[in-house]
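Example record for the data management plan.
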Amino acid sequence: MSATPNTSRAAINRANGANRRNSRHSTGPHTESGKQRSSLNALRHGLTAASAVLPSEDQAAFDAHRHSFFDEYKPATPTETQLTQELAETAWRLNRIPLLEAELFSQTPNPESLIPQLATLGLHYSRLSRQFQKAVDHLREIQADRAERQRRDLKDAAAILELHKHKGLPWEPADDGFVFSKEFVERVAQHKKHLNASRHIEYVLFHMPPTPALTS
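Corresponding structural encoding:
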């Protein structure tokens, strides 16, 4: 006897309910073979693996990729170094996704069957893109704060240097807790003198109101 539509729907509902109950108790693969398959799936695309570089990838190419990020951002603190490393690894994984998509299309004659895999890769791409942007924003914020502190400290150091020179007293930046060399502070102080002088000349030549002519 063939099943009626209502009977089929009831069976589907029972199956869905059982699947939901089972999923609440599931914590992932339990057997050793299942764990190995899960590990291999993560390793196959490497987008969630602990190591950014897969065994099939070129470590030297990744090192060059990583060095390009360190050359660009020039991290100066452990936090900046960590964020720069995260950027390099995340970008490496992002760049892998188009290659994985191309490999899927080359190996499957029916593109429609790729929809689940492509959807999964799309989710990984969105997640990694958000992670990359968050790290970029954080790194730029930290480096902007550091640059502003350095600018203020250099301005103060140059002013203190000029004060000691005016009084004829010896002075070293370390005396006031600065980490800059005295030669560097000297250059900054000299630059500020030249800048102030040029601004004065600009004002006299282009902005100062003309002196009224004297009448006899």
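Summary line stored alongside the record: DSSP finds six helices and no strands in the chain.
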